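Dear support,

I submitted the protein below through the web form. The confirmation email said the job was done, but the results page showed an empty box. After a refresh the structure appeared. I'm attaching both so you can tell me whether what I see now is the final result or a partial one.
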Amino acid sequence: MFKEFKEFAMKGSLVDIAVAFVMGAAFKDVVTSFTGGIISPLVGLIFNANLKDLKYVIQEGVINNNGVVEGESAILWGNFITYLIDFIIVAFVMFLIIKGINALKRKEEDVSTGPSDNDLLSEIRDLLKK
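What the results page shows now:
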């Protein structure tokens, strides 16, 4: 059973998926940093606030002795917009990557659709007969 699992785990596709997963996690951090450090402040200029901090307060809270707001109910729409921007960036980059991979596959298929070995050998035979 261990041998079977080892063969399964070492298949190329599974290793590729693992590498893609690790790279995707690192890419997510880059996109989150880009959105939080560049996009949010620029959008925040419009509202004179940090985009992530924008919210619609439903019920006001009370500030405790430590300066922390307790009991507030709010819709964190700025935080949602930030994550939505993250998703759109990641989805667009994944679209570009898949589009590039598909273009490479089409080029490989175009190259491989030439005449077969049998066709070439038949053509050579016919030429030698003349």
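Response: this is the final, complete result; the empty box was a page-load delay. The longest strand covers residues 56-59.
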